[in-house]
Design a protein that fits this description.
4 copies of one chain form a homotetramer. By secondary structure, chain A is of the alpha/beta class. Chain A has 8 helices and 13 strands. In chain A, helix 1 packs antiparallel against helix 2, helix 3 packs parallel to helix 8 and helix 7 crosses helix 8. Chain A starts with 5 loop residues before the first strand and ends with a strand. The interface between A and C is small, with 8 and 8 residues. Chains A, B, C, D: This is Formyltetrahydrofolate deformylase.
């Protein structure tokens, strides 16, 4: 764990020679020390370039604002970069959404309490009141926002207001069984993570464990992905799999799958919090 | 490895009390010795019952024919069984079909030569002539049967005649890139095994590695299944998976996947040869 | 889930012809209905035979006691069987032991509360008081029994008395960091399950994650095993593995490993509770 | 696949600020284009720094020799680097050693023929003559160099002479069952790869599948490592694992394990050929 300030730079831009030299030279010149650097090019000729750098700033010669301003001018503009810098000292604020299944939610709260998720968790929003006691025990606010066909717009407005008030950076759907409308999705582009209980793109839609049972697959999976307006179609962050057999009933698949869901969602959230995930089109680059 | 004759009994029937007792009592009474027995019920009440028994016949009091006749009358009829007995001494005869990719074919031929596939392999049929030398080196006949839109019926008739002459029990499509028509499929029900190069039901159809690349999945797979008239929809025998990342190009996925294909197809074929696979509707029971 | 009484028969005996017929015939004759049967022989000639049968008793013509008496005389004695029948209606009583790490303990308590571990959990015994509040929240008694070199005998006597009072059938060491002396181990032969945080037999002894880090392995593991007098040497019930890389620090290995530990221990405990584990010498037969 | 010359730079040095900037700046200034860069630090303060860069040299302003000379002076010396540059155009020359098991050898020869191992394979050396025909079929020279206790020194001298003549860069022990003496090992430091048929450090020494069977493990493995003077103790490059059960005999473990061995050894060799493996002490950094 670093005693000195830690920051993470994420860059996406058209690939061309000299990007690594420009970025690393800039950081070096201003007293930042690169401790990890990952880089990926879809194609050296005419492709897209992705970079993640972790750096410490023991001897920074500028304020963070001034550093970012200089980076924008000197490095980002010439290379037409899409970029951002995250500072570990400013923890991301995460809202969890859940319906009735507690497994994915509790996994995240447990890991968070153990210090394994580097975030603030100011609130949980649910369309049911069932999990209030479990959540409040962790010292997290629980908001019951029921959703019906008629009240959906209102419920989403209320939810967005709660997120706004809490300064939410990331929304995690820990088995939240309502479809979010564009008014929510568009507010948090690539900042809403969902866990789908199948190995996407197999078994989109409802009741994937029953679908898997009926198709007779020998391996099941779980998929964490960013939510977009196309249900179950957003960029995949992580997937996990487990073997099953003819002996497994639908409820066996469910039990095995829930263990996968917990694991896969936790990994995806941790990677997002550590700024390891970049999105390109409908795919992700994960520097894990 | 048994010195005494080994046989395998497969049974499917409506579940009801007393089936195991009836089967094992019958075998016991006629001097057969059960060395392995697996059993599965989809539901004890009104479900389907599956059984596989391996038995040796050191002291059989009947000929095999008489044993089967007695079993039919005394056990199978009262329980309305669908059943068969395979004798290890009568090796199954396997035809391999292939187009141009050699990896799955060579894996099978190599395992066969090592004695790891308990079968006869009288012939390979291909719509190309490319792999002739490779195949003939194993002492296996190679038949080049070109297929075009106009000659498909004729080519299939020729293929069926070859199978007939060779007394084929099982057909394995080791990356055979032509769709078999019902006239072939119906002749070998649940006796044609195909390897599909994706984790079915994801990515049916053509070029699944490219589809997987474009969807940005983090795990790829391969699926061995029985061929039915619905392309890529037959009962799944086995599936294998491997992790991939954003660093993998389509050709990396292909290379990783081909290793899966070899492994998954070889398992499925071995299990079929050892009479470990029962089909129920569009699913399999695999006593592996 | 069965509405009718469910029982599980476990048998170990010298292999010889006729065992399956004798067992299944006996159950059939007394109105029991076999719903699952698994069988394993180490060698048909002179080997050991293992059998697990699940049966329901909708029409039993005897009391359980009389059934067991008859089985002992008619079936078990002639075949020299080591055997027992477990009744699902009589839930096993499980004591958990823990030191300071909470992950394995909480996983078991949480699965138990969800109904995924079919057992009673009357108490937790710990050599520290740290986890009292967590445990009591589940309605489970927490006993703090400190252990020092001088007080070990006394502490173990106290622990055994607690187990006795609670009618304990199974002890689970959910990261309990004290070595149990023979006076405890011998009281619960093959009824104490431990989770060791490595892929045994690699990295026995202390601090296995550091050992794994220093050896530079690319895969780590966790092992659930029955406790015997030889530390880390008892029969292995289940093992799980996960990939790691040079990027992982000791604490990364620990975090990844703890997820494995939870999963592997839960599986081993569930299989024990469902009477799926037989011990032969220093190995297990797991009918999972 | 690159049309322009591709090179790979590997660097190990004490960690300090500015290394990435120095390396990438140097390459940029001389017209080389970085297409992939991976970097790892064991500890930003006082640790060791590892870097791998792939670069193309479409516009190099120097000869390769001059580039290396300038790099040595301008970059390597100030940072006390241990470094080398590999050129893809100069394929590494690989000698394979084998005894009687053909599976690992054939896998490598197959992959090589398919173009999946970017190397020259001038010769196979074996202490038996059994696999001559298999090897020569691939157009590779086969040298039978018998080894007995009395002739070991002589046999190793002969082997080294063969390697010398063939200009060997890498030696792969594809199940070669003789222990190499320091006179061979020291000639090819971190350039001899062995496949050990267990999950090291479990089951060192002879007959690991039998050891695994007797310990009753539920997962087996295979390990590719560099050969050092301590048998089975060299730096691990890659490991693979597979589940097994009580149903598996020693020969089942062997069959399952041989599939692992093929896969794990092939990965390790490919990574070495692509200059993805750095050695630090007794561990590896694998930029895969």
């Amino acid at each position: 764990m670093p005693d000195v300030p830690l920051a993470r730079l994420l860059v996406t831009c058209p690939d061309q020679p000299g990007i690594v030299a420009a970025v690393s030279g800039f950081l070096r010149n201003h007293g930042a020390n690169i401790t990890a650097l990952d880089q990926h090019s879809t194609d050296p000729a005419g492709g897209t370039f992705f970079l993640r750098a972790e750096f410490t700033t023991p001897d920074l010669d500028l304020t963070a604002d001034a550093l970012e301003g200089a980076f924008a001018r000197v490095v980002a503009a010439p290379f037409a970069m899409d970029w951002r810098i995250d500072y570990a000292a400013r923890k991301k604020r995460v809202a969890l959404m859940v319906s009735k299944y507690d497994h994915a939610l509790l996994e995240l709260l447990w890991l968070w309490r153990r210090g394994e998720l580097d975030a603030e968790v100011p609130l949980v929003v649910s369309n049911h009141d069932d999990l209030r006691a479990e959540v409040e025990r962790f010292g997290v606010d629980y908001h019951h926002v029921p959703v019906s066909k008629d009240t959906k717009a209102e419920a989403e407005a209320q939810t967005l207001a709660l997120f706004e008030d809490a300064g939410v950076d990331l929304v995690v759907l820990a088995r939240y069984m309502q479809i979010l409308s564009p008014r929510v999705v568009d507010r948090y582009p690539h900042r809403i993570i969902n866990i789908h209980h199948s190995f996407l793109p197999a078994f989109v839609g409802a009741d994937p464990y029953r679908q898997a049972f009926e198709r007779g697959v020998k391996v099941i999976g779980a998929t964490a992905h960013y939510v977009t307006e196309d249900l179950d179609e957003g960029p995949i962050i992580e997937q996990g799999v487990a073997r099953v057999s003819h002996r497994d009933s639908v409820s066996d698949l469910k039990r095995t799958g829930q263990s996968l869901e917990r694991d896969v969602l936790a990994k995806a959230v941790r990677w997002h919090l550590e700024a390891r995930v970049l999105v390109q089109g409908n795919k992700t680059v994960v520097f894990a």
